[in-house]
C-alpha cells in the first residue's frame, strides 16, 4: 500500500516512522526546504511516552528527556502552592510510563534519523487533495501531483488536506496571545523548580519547565492582547514586552524573563468546527489529517 504524508513536522515524521515499521510504502511532502522545529518544549504524558516506547525509541528518547518531579500550580505573586500532582514512582506505576519534558527539535530528530534516504520531498506545498478511482491524489503548487492509496494530512493549522475534506475552517481570534521563549541554564537553577509549574494570575498564566535534559527552561506565557496577533510560531516579540505584560508577577519569573534573549509570540485561535464539504457523505475518504496549534484551550 502506498501512503503519502503531507507535512514533515512531528506528526508527519512520526506517522511515517510507524508506517515504515509495518512495511508500508511511504513518502513525505514538506513545504519547507529542510526538516526543522521551533525552539519550544513539549510535555509528554504517559500515553505519548508509551507511543514512543511502542516505536522502539524510548532509550534514544531518554538522552534528551527531563523528568519533572511534579505538576505544580502556584499563585502568580506569592508562589503559594495551589495544587500538586506528584510524578514520582507511584505515578509511573499507576500509568505504566513516566511524564517527560522534551524539546520539539529533539522529538522531531528522534523520528527523522530513522527515515530512509529519498522518501522526503522538500519545497512541496500542497494546494489540495482529490479523490481518484484508486485512492487519492495530492496536488502541489509547482504543478506536480502524487497519487497514493491513502493521503495523510499533517500540514498544520491551515491544512490543505483538511480544507479539501471539510472546506475552509473559520479561525476565530480568541483575544489571547502566547509568548514563547527558551532560556539556556546549563542545569537546574534555584529560580526555576524542577517541576512543570503553572503560575496562575488574573487573565493570564505562565508555564515553565525544563527541557534538553535540564539544560534549558521552556517558557509559555499567555495573556490577553488588545490587538490581533498572527497565528505564527515565528513572529518575534521583545523581552521588554513580555516583562511589561507580566509586571508584578513573582520575582522568580522576573529573574527567568530577564535571562531571555529571544522571544516569539503567536495569537490563539479557535475554530468553528469541522463539517464535511466537497466529499460525498456515502463515500469513505482515504484521508487522515493531523493539524494543530490552534485551540479554544490555552496552550502549555
From TrEMBL:
Database matches in PANTHER family: FAD-BINDING DOMAIN-CONTAINING PROTEIN-RELATED, HYDROXYLASE, PUTATIVE (AFU_ORTHOLOGUE AFUA_3G01460)-RELATED
A GO MF label: FAD binding
Pfam families: FAD_binding_3 (PF01494)
SUPFAM superfamilies: FAD/NAD(P)-binding domain
Transmembrane regions: none
Presence of keyword Oxidoreductase: yes
Lineage, highest ranks first: Bacteria, Pseudomonadati, Pseudomonadota, Alphaproteobacteria, Hyphomicrobiales
Gene3D superfamilies from the UniProt entry: FAD/NAD(P)-binding domain (3.50.50.60)
Domain FAD-binding: 3-165
GO biological process: secondary metabolite biosynthetic process
Keyword Mitochondrion: no
Protein name: FAD binding domain-containing protein
Keywords attached to this entry: FAD, Flavoprotein, Oxidoreductase
Amino acid at each position: 500500500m502506498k501512503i503519502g504524508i503531507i507535512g514533515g513536522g512531528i506528526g508527519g515524521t512520526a506517522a511515517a516512522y510507524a508506517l515504515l515499521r509495518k512495511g508500508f510504502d511511504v513518502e513525505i511532502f514538506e513545504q519547507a526546504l529542510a526538516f526543522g522545529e521551533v525552539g519550544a518544549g513539549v510535555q509528554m504524558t504517559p500515553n505519548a511516552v508509551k507511543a514512543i516506547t511502542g516505536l522502539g525509541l524510548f532509550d534514544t528518547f531518554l538522552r534528551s528527556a527531563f523528568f519533572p518531579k511534579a505538576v505544580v500550580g502556584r499563585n502568580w505573586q506569592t508562589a503559594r502552592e495551589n495544587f500538586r500532582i506528584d510524578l514520582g514512582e507511584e505515578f509511573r506505576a499507576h500509568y505504566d510510563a513516566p511524564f517527560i519534558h522534551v524539546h520539539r527539535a529533539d522529538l522531531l530528530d528522534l523520528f527523522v534519523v530513522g527515515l530512509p534516504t529519498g522518501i522526503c520531498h522538500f519545497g512541496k506545498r500542497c494546494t489540495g487533495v482529490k479523490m481518484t478511482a484508486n485512492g487519492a491524489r495530492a496536488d502541489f503548487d509547482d504543478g506536480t501531483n502524487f497519487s497514493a492509496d491513502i493521503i495523510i494530512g499533517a500540514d498544520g493549522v491551515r491544512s490543505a488536506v483538511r480544507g479539501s475534506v471539510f472546506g475552509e475552517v473559520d479561525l476565530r481570534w480568541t483575544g489571547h496571545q502566547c509568548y514563547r521563549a527558551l532560556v539556556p541554564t546549563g542545569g537546574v537553577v534555584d529560580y526555576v523548580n524542577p517541576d512543570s509549574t503553572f503560575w496562575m494570575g488574573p487573565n493570564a498564566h505562565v508555564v515553565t519547565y525544563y527541557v534538553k535534559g535540564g539544560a534549558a527552561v521552556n517558557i509559555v506565557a499567555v495573556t490577553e492582547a488588545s490587538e490581533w496577533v498572527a497565528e505564527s510560531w515565528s513572529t518575534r516579540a521583545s523581552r521588554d514586552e513580555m516583562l511589561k505584560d507580566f509586571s508584578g508577577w513573582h520575582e522568580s519569573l522576573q529573574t527567568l524573563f530577564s535571562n531571555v534573549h529571544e522571544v516569539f509570540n503567536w495569537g490563539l485561535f479557535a475554530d468553528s468546527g469541522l463539517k464535511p464539504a466537497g466529499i460525498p457523505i456515502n463515500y469513505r475518504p482515504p484521508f487522515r489529517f493531523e493539524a494543530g496549534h490552534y485551540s479554544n484551550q490555552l496552550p502549555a
